[in-house]
Amino acid sequence: MKSDNQNFAHALVAAAGAHPHRDCLVLGAGPDALVWSYHDLEQFSERMAGALASLGTGVGDRVVVQTEKSAEAVALYLGCLRLGAVYVPLNTAYTAAEVHYFLADAEPKVFVCTGAASGPCSGAAARAGATLVTLEADGSGSLAEAARAAEPYSGVAARAAGDLAAIVYTSGTTGRSKGAMLTHGNLASSAEVLRDYWGWRDDDVLLHALPIFHVHGLFVALHCALLGATPMIFLARFDAAEVAAALPRATVMMGVPTFYTRLLERDDVNRDTCANMRLFVSGSAPLTAQTFAAWEARTGHRILERYGMSETMMNTSNPLDGERVAGTVGFPLPGVEARIAAEDGTVLPPGEIGTIEVKGPNVFAGYWHMPDKTAEEFRDDGFFITGDLATMDESGRITIVGRGKDLVISGGYNIYPKEIETLLDEMPGVVESAVIGVPHPDFGEGVVAVLVTDGTAVGQAEVDRALDGRLARFKQPKAVVTVDALPRNAMGKVQKNQLREQYAHLFTQPHP
Ligand code: MLC
Ligand code: AMP
Q1: Cβ atoms within 10 Å of 434's Cβ, excluding its own
Q2: Which of ligand 2's atoms lies nearest the C-alpha of 386?
Q3: Which one is predicted more confidently, 58 or 137?
Q4: Which of 125, 431, 443, 444 could bridge across to 111 with cysteines, CB 3.0–4.6 Å?
Q5: Mean pLDDT of 411-440
Q6: Residue 127 and residue 191 in one domain
Q7: pLDDT at 167 over 60
Q8: In this structure, is residue 262 part of a structural domain?
Q9: How does DSSP assign 11-39, residue by residue?
Q10: Based on the domain organization, do 389 and 425 belong to the same domain?
Q11: How many CB atoms lie within 10 A of CB 500?
């Protein structure tokens, strides 16, 4: 009988309870890897929930988390769900200056961070009314230590499908980050659909090398394994050598395209080392047809590409059994409605380019504290406007052809030019700036700053210095060029397409 409690933790507790002795987190790729069973993880998540409760955290309270990837961090996430608290993960690359904004916006009860962040963020945490704790001991006490001594909270707070489970921050075209509010129903429906669509098996072993502060690593990858109560080879970060060494023991890997291009540089990634694998998934950024073909030639596997967003979890996927077509993101997942529409909302016929709009149980509840932004991005009939440009063929297969939003995707991370331009424009000597993404052999797209100056020499070193500590390193321009004037159209709008064309080969050799 289905429980009335729609807290997603309820489904995960049930899955773990059915297989308590199975391996859950295999920490590391070598023979001396530490293993947490499902029982271990459940027990520790109960203690984490107990420790959070003792800090006053309850239903609906936000818990902002910026920590390294670890078993304890997974237990912390599950502990939040159990309590009915709202989990708010942050990229570990964000600087203290960036974190200050998130703390002020989310107003958390607790901020869990690393020892390095605790000093620079203590004031902002206090102003937001949050208790600051580190996850692991960094001298003084820590949440993990408190959890080891805590009275376990073994319940699962009652939650409805529409209640908040997480807030995932995504940058915006205005430069101000927006918190996408995801509900327990979003998490559950997405996990269940993916488990079924990708044919999750009892003997699957997931190779998990993604960060767990974004939808891909946290919700897509982790949830599939937890719901199936199957093991994960849980690596702290993507290291090509470590991942290659683990491939023979895994059956599924999920990654961003950079994972695949980096692995292709290695001789030990081949048909033999991938013989045990049944599924390679790619997403978060476009996978090129060349990488798809090279991977198939090398390993015999056709990568399954899918498409999603923080706001919508997963929208479309190439099929498990049917044809996986390179350069396409497949079909709307079961329960997800997708259409291609013109700017005015008119639904377009097959083959025409427009914006993908989606509707379904996967779609978020809106932006935290931003009702106007939320209203702008939804149609009256409930479809969410993704900002991604695509075509749909007669069979419903979708091909992404570009982005309507001014966004760079680098190594699977979203970077909004506006945020960088605002800081560049404040630099002495800079009259105006335009930030673009151009092809990059490792990251897919690399960030370039195009500057107009008043004659002052402003180059890479000056830009690096100006952005240092204010902007996460991955967002900082990997090249800086100076021009006399930015190209503009009759309306005065900067023609970024022209700049992208002009600098298309900055990081790559032009083909002869
Ligand atoms: C790291 N660097 C990057 C970068 N990652 N620069 C641009 N883009 C990136 N993605 C820079 C660092 O700032 C640093 O610069 C240098 O590279 C080395 O840092 P590193 O930490 O050692 O990098 P590395 O470990 O090699 O990381 C690369 C990566 C990582 C591709 C493995 O970025 C990654 O794990 N990406 C996955 C992102 C992801 O999970 N996206 C999902 C979003 S959810 P310097 O100058 O300091 O030396 C989503 C929805 C969906 O999009 O559909 O899934
Ligand atoms: P995020 O806001 O980090 O969740 O990033 C979501 C964005 O990533 C989407 O709006 C797309 O632009 C992009 N994206 C995700 N998956 C794919 C894919 N398979 N192909 C192309 N773009 C993708």
Answers
A1: 24
A2: 10
A3: 58
A4: 125
A5: 96
A6: yes
A7: yes
A8: no
A9: HHHHHHHHSTTSEEEEESSSTT-EEEEHH
A10: no
A11: 17
Our CA dihedral for 385, 389, 395, 396, rounded to 10 degrees, sits at -20
Whether 50 and 108 map to the same domain: the answer is: yes
CB atoms within 10 A of CB 502: 16
CA distance to 21, 91, 106, 110, per residue, from 369 (Å): 42, 21, 9, 19
As for ligand 1, residues whose beta carbon falls within 6 Å of it are 210-211, 214-217, 237-238, 256, 258, 283-284, 308-310, 410-413, 443, 473-474
Residues 163-168 have a mean pLDDT of 98
Kindly give the pairing relationship between strand 398-403 and strand 430-440.
unpaired
For the record, the structure tokens of 91 come out as 């990229």
**Encoded tokens for 17:** 């309870």
Scanning the structure block, which residue is given the tokens 């409805």? 160
Give the whole-angstrom CA distance, residue 11 versus residue 2: 10
Domain count within the chain:
3
Boundary of a domain, candidates 357, 378, 405? 405
Q: Distance between alpha carbon 467 and the CA centroid of its chain, in Å?
A: 23
Mean pLDDT over 171-186 rounds to: 87
Residue range(s) defining the domain that contains residue 480: 407-502
Q: Are 483 and 443 part of one and the same domain?
A: yes
pLDDT at 32 over 90: no
Q: How many CA atoms lie within 13 A of 250 on its CB side?
A: 27
Q: Are residues 438 and 400 in the same domain?
A: no
DSSP bridge pairs for 392: 398
Distance CA 140, CA 142 (A): 7
From 234, 258, 471, mutation site for ligand 1 pocket: most ligand atoms within 8 A of C-beta: 258
Integer Cα distance of 83 and 155 in angstroms: 8
| Predicted local confidence at residue 97, as pLDDT | 93
Q: Are residues 324 and 448 in the same domain?
A: no
The proportion of the chain whose per-residue pLDDT surpasses 70, expressed as a percent, equals 97
Tell me: pLDDT of 509 over 90: no
Average pLDDT rounded to a whole number, residues 8-32: 93
- The whole-number pLDDT of residue 294 equals 98
Express each pLDDT in 281-294 by its tens digit: 999 999 999 999 99
Q: Is residue 400 in some structural domain?
A: yes
Note the residue count of the chain: 512
Spatial distance between the Cα atoms of 197 and 192, rounded to a whole number of angstroms: 9
Residue 127 sits in a domain whose CATH number is 3.40.50.12780
SS3 string, 94-106, reads: CCHHHHHHHHHHH
**Residue of the nearest CA to atom 5 in ligand 2?**
309
pLDDT tens profile 239-291: 999 999 999 999 999 999 999 999 999 999 999 999 999 999 999 999 999 99
Determine the distance from the C-alpha atom of residue 465 to the mean position of all C-alpha atoms in its chain, rounded to a whole number: 28
* Domain CATH for 435: 3.30.300.30
**Substitution candidate for ligand 2 out of 220, 400, 415 with most atoms within 8 A of CB:** 400
